[in-house]
Design brief:
With 468 residues, the protein is of the alpha/beta class. Helices cover 34% and strands 23% of the residues. Helix 6 (124-137) packs across helix 11 (310-318) and helix 8 (200-212) runs parallel beside helix 9 (225-233). It is globular, with a radius of gyration of 22 Å.
Length: 468
C-alpha cells in the first residue's frame, strides 16, 4: 500500500482547498465527525460554505499560502485547482502530502466495511438519495455522500453510526476507479465526457474496471446492453438485474400510468430458477418519468438484496420527494409553474422533457444552458433532437466550464437546427422573454449542469416582485 493510501491512519489535520464544493464538504464533514481537525478555503460564498462554517471549521476566503497552517498534515484539492494555486504550492514546498479529491474519497470510503457505490452516466444523485432515504427509514443509520441536496436531511451528506456508506461513484476522469465497493449499482452507460475518454469504448472499459473492483454484489440495469454484458462477465460475485420487464430480477408490473401523474407500479422480484416471481409491494412515485422508475428499481433491488424489508422499501420510495435540481418545482406564479433540472446530456434532456410534456401543462418552455464546448460539438444533432421535444426552447450561450472553444461551436449552431428556438446572452433577457410569453397553465423549466439555476431563481424573484 502506498503512502497516500495510509494518510488517514497518520494525518489528523487536513486542509481542503475549495471546501465549499459539493464534492468536498461531505468529506470534510465526515472527517470532522471522525475526530480529524479540518480547515479549508474557498473563493466564493455559498449556501454550502455557510453549512461548513456552522460545523466550526475554520474557513478562509481566498487562496493564500498562509492558509496552510503549520500543523497541516495533508492537503486535499479538486481537479479544478490549478498547479499555481498558492496553497497547493505551499504544501508541496513544505513536503505536505497533497491529494486530489478523488484519491481522498477512495481513502475515506475504504474505512467503511460496506461501501455502496452508485455509478452510471445518468441518475446517480437521485438513486443515491433514494438509497439513503430507504436505509435511514429502515434504521440502518448510513453515512452518505450525495451529488445534490436530499430534502430529508437538508444536505448532500450524512454522518451515520453504522459501517455503511452510500456514495456516488462518478465516472468523470475515472474518479470511481479510486473506489472499492462491497456493493455497486450500474444504472446505465452512455457516451459522455468524451473530451477525456476519447471513445465510447473507453467509457465502457472504465465501467468494466469499476465492476471488477466490487467485492460482493453488482446491481445492474439489464436493459442497458453494455451494462448487462459487464454483468455477465462478473462471475466471482452476486449479480442481480433490474429493468422494465421480467427478463430482469426486479421489474415493474401493473404499471398505472396516466397523463399528469408519476409512475405507479407493483414491484416484482423474480429469484431465478423455478421459483415464481413475487410481488413485493406497490410503489407510487412522486418524481416523474420512466428514468426515475428505473432509478427506483435500482434502489429497491439494492435494498432488498441487503435485507431491507419490502414494506419499508415501497413506503420510502413512495414518499421520496426528489433532490435539489432534479425537476425541482420552485413555485407557481400567475398560474405558471417554474422548475429547475440538472439535465445536461441529450439522453437526460430527452427523458426529462418527455416526462414534462406528459404532465398536463398547457405548454412547456424549456430554458437550456449548453454545458461545455466539447459535449455540444460531439452531440450537436442529439441535442437538437432532444431539445425539439418541448413546445418552446430558449437557450443561453455555451458555458465554457474548463475548456477553450477550439471546436468553434456556438449556441447559434444548435439553434439553427431547432426551428423556432431562441437564444440570448443574459439571464435577464431570458427571464423577460419567457415571462412575457408564458401563460397560465404553462411550465417554465430551466435545464443544465452549470449555473442556469440562477436564471430560474431570477424568474421566481421577478414574479414575486411583480406580485407585491
Amino acid at each position: 500500500m502506498n503512502q497516500k493510501a495510509n494518510i488517514l491512519d497518520s494525518a489528523k489535520r487536513i486542509h481542503f482547498v475549495g471546501i465549499g464544493g459539493a464534492g468536498m464538504c461531505p468529506m470534510a464533514e465526515i472527517l470532522l465527525h471522525k475526530g480529524y481537525a479540518v480547515s479549508g478555503s474557498d473563493q466564493n460564498e455559498s449556501d454550502t460554505l455557510d453549512r461548513v462554517k456552522t460545523w466550526g471549521i475554520p474557513v478562509y476566503m481566498g487562496h493564500r499560502a498562509e492558509n496552510v497552517g503549520d500543523d497541516v498534515q495533508a492537503l486535499v484539492y479538486t481537479s479544478a485547482c490549478k498547479a499555481d494555486n498558492p496553497e497547493l504550492v505551499e504544501a508541496k514546498k513544505r513536503g505536505i502530502p497533497t491529494l486530489e479529491r478523488c484519491v481522498m474519497l477512495g481513502m475515506l470510503t475504504d474505512r467503511y466495511p460496506q461501501l455502496i457505490g452508485v455509478s452510471g452516466t445518468h441518475g446517480k444523485t437521485t438513486t443515491t438519495s433514494m438509497l439513503t432515504q430507504i436505509f435511514m427509514e429502515a434504521g440502518r443509520d448510513p453515512s452518505a455522500i450525495i451529488g445534490g441536496k436530499l430534502p430529508l436531511i437538508g444536505s448532500n451528506s450524512r454522518v451515520g453510526g453504522s459501517g455503511t456508506i452510500i456514495c456516488e461513484a462518478d465516472e468523470y476522469v475515472e474518479t470511481f476507479l479510486h473506489l472499492h465497493p462491497a456493493v455497486s449499482v450500474i444504472l446505465n452507460i452512455d457516451a459522455d465526457h468524451l473530451e477525456y475518454y476519447k471513445s465510447f469504448e473507453n467509457v465502457v472499459r472504465a465501467f468494466r474496471q469499476y465492476a471488477s473492483q466490487t467485492s460482493q454484489l453488482l446491481v445492474v440495469n439489464g436493459d442497458c446492453p453494455e451494462a448487462a454484458e459487464i454483468a455477465r462477465e462478473q462471475t466471482d460475485k452476486q449479480v442481480v438485474l433490474f429493468g422494465l420487464d421480467d427478463s430482469s430480477h426486479y421489474y415493474p408490473a401493473e404499471l398505472r400510468e396516466e397523463p399528469s401523474t408519476c409512475e405507479d407500479f407493483t414491484l416484482m422480484y423474480k429469484p431465478g430458477g423455478s421459483e415464481p416471481a413475487q410481488a413485493l409491494g406497490q410503489i407510487k412515485l412522486k418524481v416523474p418519468g420512466r428514468h426515475n422508475m428505473l432509478n427506483a428499481l435500482a434502489a429497491a433491488a439494492t435494498s432488498h438484496c441487503l435485507g431491507v424489508e419490502p414494506s419499508v422499501i415501497c413506503a420510502s420510495l413512495s414518499h421520496f420527494a426528489g433532490v435539489h435540481r432534479r425537476f425541482e418545482v420552485l413555485g407557481q406564479f400567475e398560474g405558471v409553474t417554474v422548475a429547475d433540472d440538472f439535465a445536461h446530456h441529450p439522453t437526460e434532456l430527452a427523458a426529462v422533457l418527455s416526462s414534462a410534456m406528459k404532465m398536463g401543462y398547457r405548454q412547456v418552455w424549456a430554458v437550456f444552458q449548453p454545458h461545455t464546448y466539447s459535449r455540444t460539438y460531439t452531440f450537436l444533432d442529439d441535442f437538437a433532437k432532444s431539445l425539439s421535444i418541448p413546445d418552446h426552447l430558449v437557450m443561453t450561450e455555451i458555458l465554457a466550464v474548463r475548456e477553450e472553444n477550439t471546436y468553434h461551436i456556438y449556441t447559434a449552431d444548435l439553434a439553427a437546427k431547432i426551428p423556432g428556438s431562441q437564444w440570448f446572452n443574459s439571464f435577464q433577457e431570458i427571464a423577460s422573454y419567457v415571462m412575457d410569453n408564458a401563460q397560465p397553465g404553462d411550465l417554465i423549466l430551466t435545464l443544465g449542469g452549470g449555473d442556469i439555476y440562477k436564471c430560474a431563481n431570477l424568474i421566481v424573484e421577478k414574479y414575486q416582485s411583480r406580485a407585491q
